[in-house]
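Entry type: protein chain
Record version: 2
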Amino acid sequence: MTRRQFLSAVPAAAWFPTRKPERLAVPLRIIVDSRTNPNGAPLKRFWSRIWPQTAGDFEACGIHLDTSVTTGEVRRSPGGKPIFVGLDRHILNLVVTDQIPMQWDRARALSGVTTHYQEYFVCIVALNYAHTHQIPFLSVNTCLHELLHAFLSDIFEDRPAGVKGNTREFRVDWYATRMWLFHDGAQVRRATKAYVERIRAEVAARS
């Protein structure tokens, strides 16, 4: 075999290794509901399995979750609306609690909710139902799923009903599965960068 034949037989990727994307830092505030049992199995499972898997999947795709952790509370107003204590209006808040507030859950046993609520950007994870990756495209890490709703800018819109709503859920699980199985987060990274810029612009407009 000649030198030219040898070089043509070797894939280009072997000579020009793929560069990792520049690290994108996303500020995130984790608020643990003080009413949650600190020694209970659900919270221990969150810190030992659910959250490490979430952060690891994002990190593998070049997205670093720049996280601070604090204690807060999820209360209920006389009218039934949730009252959150400990949130930060400037960044995304991940609330870890036992279950989704009743007015939002409506007996559906939801594992998570992501919303723009009273000028707060909020993801809520319900420890009673949250889980790690289970079935590709159908049942992915609860925390990853909810954060993707924020980073893909779903948080700025009301969830559509019917087929459109189900399509949006599948879209999120599709991206989550790509991150989980293949560490493929190029599109998510671009969307996350746009999300960070939009958050900064909205916060600046309110100041």
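Comment: Helices lie at 3-9, 12-15, 41-60, 102-105, 142-151, 162-182, 186-206.
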